[in-house]
Amino acid sequence: MKTPQTFQNRDKAKVCFITFGCQMNKLDSELAAGEFVKHGLSLTQNPDEAGVVVVNTCIVRGHAEERALSHLGRFKRAKQQCPELVLAVMGCMAQKEGQNLLHAYPHVDIVCGTKHFGRLPELVRKVRSGGGRLAATGDAPVKFDRVPSARPNRYRAFVSIMRGCNSFCSYCIVPYVRGREVSRPPQEVEDEVRALVGDGCIEITLLGQNVDAYRHGDTDLAALLRHLDPIPGLKRLRFITSHPKDISARLLETMAELPTVCEHVHIAAQSGSNRILNAMNRGYTAERYREIVASARHIMPTIEISSDFIVGFPGETDKDFEATVSLVRNCQFNQSFIFKYSPRPGTKAAKMHDDVPTSVKQERNHRLLAVQEQLSSERNRLKQGRTFEVMLEGASKRDRSRLTGRTRGNDIVVVPKPDAAELAPGTLVDARITRCTPLTLFGEMQRTDATIRRSEP
Length: 457
Ligand code: SAH
Ligand code: SF4
Ligand code: F3S
Fold this sequence. Notes:
This protein has 457 residues and is of the alpha/beta class.
């Protein structure tokens, strides 16, 4: 390999990724990073020393878009100081804006759409050899390649099993920037999971915009889980995100049966009002949603369910909002992610009158959060005195003398750090819960043990 050529304080052979957005975007950064590693470049977290900076963008809400744009703005000066720096924009904003980004941001060299990130090293080479500024955003077959060693976490990995979305919820930009659903052949998924587990991963999360719609030939998500469950060394299998219109009893029963599949589902509800659910084009009613939750809890009494909500969708009245509050009270989620509606140009809802004032959106957001917090606290208090299997993830950010990890139900647990060296991230321990806050359980370590067990009822 050639000695890296250093210019100013930047290293031509170092790449820095700055990633916004969902797990799929994070995975795309990881896969693109793997391609650079294959081409002999190394990764850095420090954008000031990198010869290539890649900003991976999200535009799911206005706020996400503003953050990504303000980040791009920051590199204007860096580019003036070091014109050899290659600045690339990838992800959903790159896909949506294409050439426009090159016009609006003269310091951006590469715009790389959601289906082209595997080509980033080639695009960088083109720019460096005088090929001018480039935008690659056309349609292309989805590339699922991966370099297992280039992942940030040794013990945990995300595996994309499908890409794109056919649901067209009226508020959502994702189908426009990620394209139609494409499911990956099960054998390919299995090979990747085996390679990752062989490389030290004990937890795998299968990813898809709507993972329950996975289908390749006769293989649906339940069948895929069945293929993956027996892989030796795999301890935890998860999948996100579930859509209420596609989640099946068969899937829930399969989850209950397979030892590695964790007792957690994220099923976005979005609203508790049928009128709003209909305007959102979600394809289910609040009653159906409640049925799914009841059926999941019946099949798996220890399951934890989390959800997403949008408040202030066009036309949402106080009565509609109260229906959402009532759904949240009813369903006993361990966690809810609550978003204020943000019109996304190009979607159906963007043509509706965004009539809920910002102050009302804010108020509803606070109120729903407060309801969820109270319920999370009550739910967490019931866990005090019980013991859970926790997969350690590393030192707690707030207090370095503690370790944090997750239960199979995806609850965060913080435990005191013992001196034992073997408690590296990825170790499974038993923790008895002693106290809690709405989002965190605090416990004492009982024993470390790498066997698979169900969390106790
Ligand atoms: N594919 C996943 C996630 C989609 S984006 C799913 O369907 O569950 C994550 C969340 O962002 C959505 O569940 C929704 O709650 C929220 N969201 C999407 N578009 C939004 C918009 N225009 N305004 C506010 N929230 C939005
Ligand atoms: Fe967006 Fe709906 Fe698809 Fe989720 S299911 S990505 S919310 S269109
Ligand atoms: Fe954002 Fe694109 Fe994910 S818009 S939420 S990064 S699919």
